[in-house]
Write a structure and sequence with these properties.
This protein has helices spanning 45-51, 73-80, 114-118, 121-126, 173-182, 213-226, 248-263, 371-388, 394-403, 432-436; strands at 2-4, 34-39, 56-60, 66-70, 85-90, 93-96, 99-100, 135-140, 160-161, 198-203, 210-212, 234-239, 241-244, 267-271, 283-284, 292-298, 334-341, 343-347, 350-354, 356-359, 365-369. It is of the alpha/beta class. It is globular, with a radius of gyration of 21 Å.
Length: 438
């Protein structure tokens, strides 16, 4: 991932002219006739749908009472006027918040990635806090069940798909995210933040890395329905995906689903977004107060091939990251920052983002950059925390993450790109030793 620099006659400033693709930022594109129907308490989805000649694509029973379906225009008004119907909103398209980069050759042997090192996970491992007994649901493009670094961490039997017949990854994004959370410590490839946690593959994005609100809600519905009976129990959800916010009414089904997941005792961690011109309050689901929204930073110092431009240091806000000041009362905003890129190097006239090293589809490793990579660092630390303190509520977990960062009031450092705007809040960098302290 590269961004061009622009020379100025005044003090040197790095200026961005990179156009974000839809795979980086959700450009809402609701499909005609596609809706989410929320029902009043006591109403039955099958009965309501049948009464209006509608065939539900998904039925929701645990995170909200309702269904998703294509509703022909001629039947929409009658359905909306049915007294059993609380609301009907257009389905919205959702995207993964990552972009593949051109990686250098993969390392030999096992590597502890720079992001895992930066968040201090190794100090937890030294005390045998590795996420043992904690289930983490990866709501994404699926997970590669055959990857040698993930095969002991994930089961194809306890999984969910909103698309094909299997939650097997067919894109690579979900496999990369899963490896950041919990790649095994087994002498090959990489080690995840919580290398003994259990992963649950919840495929809610297709092979292009895109999906719909209705698919995300169906994945959340599966998690809540199975969280308590899964072994180990599902205590964490990672969602490295999102879209731009619409109206409160349109966004409400997704928020209701997340609220009910949190009410079930599940901590929800989400990527803030990859639009540096947006505030997290403009993003779904990152703008919801119930989630832990995560922005992206660099994990280590970069390099520069031009004397005019200094290197970009570790803990700098990634040039692409969405951010937004955190309010400790309302709990809205970016709760913490975490590595979403290993480093940013100046190769004049470009900035080159070196992505986070993690597991690749069909084996081995690859690199990706994005808040998609920042979020699973936090999900992994939450797994470490819940192994040590299993009785913590999602709210208590969020407060620890938000209030116990490293370099609070100092980092994230300002990105030198002209398109990045500091949000006025230096929330600090996720740091496991602080989060796990008594």
């Amino acid at each position: 991932m590269m961004r061009q620099l622009l020379k100025r006659t005044c003090a040197p400033v790095l200026v961005a002219s990179f156009a974000l693709s839809p795979s980086l930022f959700g450009q809402n594109a609701p499909q005609a006739d596609r809706y989410i129907v929320t029902l009043n308490p006591g109403s039955q989805a099958a009965q309501v749908a049948a009464a209006h000649g509608v065939n539900p694509r998904q039925v929701y029973t645990h995170v909200l009472n309702g269904f998703a379906a294509q509703v022909p225009p001629g039947r929409l008004a009658a359905l909306a006027n049915d007294p059993r119907v609380a609301s009907i909103v257009p389905d919205q398209q959702v995207f993964a918040f990552a972009k593949p980069v051109n990686p250098p050759p993969p390392p030999s042997g096992e590597v502890v990635p720079a992001g895992v090192v930066r968040v201090g996970a190794q100090s937890a491992w030294d005390n045998n806090w590795k996420g043992t007994g904690v289930g983490v649901a990866i709501l994404d493009t699926g997970v590669d069940f055959n990857h040698t670094d993930l095969v002991e961490r994930v089961s194809s039997e306890w999984s969910f798909t909103a698309y094909t017949s299997s939650a097997q990854d067919d894109n690579g994004h979900g496999t990369h995210v899963a490896g950041i959370v919990a790649a095994s410590d087994n002498s090959i490839d990489v080690v995840g933040v919580a290398p003994s946690a259990t992963l649950y593959a919840v495929k809610v994005l297709d092979n292009t890395g895109s999906g719909w609100d209705s698919d995300i809600i169906s994945g959340l519905n599966w998690v809540v329905a199975n969280a308590a009976t899964a072994s180990p129990k599902i205590k964490v959800i990672n969602m490295s995906l999102g879209r731009g916010a619409e109206t409160t009414l349109v966004d409400q089904p997704m928020r209701t689903a997340i609220q009910n997941a949190v009410a079930a005792g599940i901590t929800v961690v989400v990527a803030a977004g990859n639009d540096q011109n947006a505030e997290v309050s403009q993003m779904v689901p990152a703008g919801f107060p119930e989630v832990i929204a995560v922005s992206s930073t660099t994990a280590k110092n970069g390099t520069s091939n031009n004397r005019r431009y200094a290197t970009i240091p570790a803990d700098t806000a990634s040039y692409f990251t969405t951010d937004g000041a955190y309010n400790s009362v309302t709990r809205i905003g970016v709760a913490t920052a975490a590595p979403g890129a290993e480093q940013e190097n100046i190769q004049f006239p470009y900035i080159n983002s070196i992505g986070i090293l993690s597991t690749a589809l069909n084996g081995g490793t690859t690199r990706m950059s994005g808040t998609s990579m920042a979020s699973p660092h936090v999900a992994g630390v939450v797994a470490l925390l819940l192994q040590k303190f299993p009785g913590l509520t999602p709210l208590q977990v969020k407060d620890r993450i938000a209030l116990r960062g490293d370099r609070v009031d100092v980092a994230p450092l300002n990105s030198p790109t002209g398109s990045y705007t500091f949000d006025g809040d230096r929330e600090g960098i996720l740091y496991a030793p602080n989060v796990l302290a008594p």
